[in-house]
Amino acid sequence: MSRPQEPGRPFFPFVNPFKILTPKGSILSPGLLALLNNFELTLTDRLKKLIPEDNNDVLSLSWMKLAMELLCQTHIDIKCLITELELPVSKWDEKWIDVYLDISVKLLDLCIAFSSELTRLSQSHLLLQCFLRNLESNSPELYVRTRSSLESWRQHASLKNPRVENCRSILDDLVKSLDLPKVKNSAKGKVLMRAMYAVKVTTIYVCSVFAAAFSGSAKNLLDLDVPNTLVWAGAFSDVQTTINEEIRNIFSQERVSVVKELDVVDANVKKLYPMIQDVTVTIEKEAISNSVSDLRRAAEKLSEGLDHLAKEVDGFFKIILGGRDALLCNLRSDDAVTESKMGNVEEQSPRRL
Question: Whole-prediction pTM value?
Answer without folding.
Answer: 0.83
